[in-house]
Amino acid sequence: MKNIDTAFRHVRGFTLLLIVGCVVICCFALYRSFNLVSQMQSKVYILANGKALEAYGSDRKDNIPVEARDHVKTFHVLFFTLDPDEKAIQSNVTKALYLADGTAKRAYDDLKENGYFSGLISGNVNQTIVVDSVAVDINEYPYRFRCYGTQQIVRPTSITTRNLLTEGSLRNVSRSDNNPHGFLIERWNTIENRDIKTVGRR
């Protein structure tokens, strides 16, 4: 009887240990499966020129500085890149105004009222901008920014280089085809826009 009782306790202990081990293994397998599925869902495969490229998804907060700088740069390039063509000017400015609030629209209206765009067209002048840097402060919302750029105004007889400094803030909005970064520039203001040099053309 003693041997039977001892054997029963051994079998019971072994059975309990086996059950606990199976539960631990099942929990670990479930955890690893969910972890692997979430990692796979964050991967995207892009087909470009017959090659599959792997891309990773991430939270927006990880990309706010990069997206904010690109949003500001895109707006300035569209707003200040002007050719002596009314349709080209209208197209660029329309795209730019999707990225900003009424302050940019007022600036455009002021330039139009003062005959700036008409002067570009009649004088065969084209204007380009190179955005040197964009500083964005993401520690406080809405995010404040400053944009430093260099404009080049090409006239038939001369080329003028100008220094441009603007500031404003960025507010989160819904992403769309017209606003892929999901930001809106507010309280946009030009701090400095002065000539650096003018050289003659041959």
TrEMBL record:
Domain of life: Bacteria
InterPro entries membership: Conjug_transposon_TraK
Gene of this entry: traK
Residues annotated as transmembrane: 12-31
Organism: Chitinophaga defluvii
Alphabetic keyword roster: Membrane, Transmembrane, Transmembrane helix
Protein name (record): Conjugative transposon protein TraK
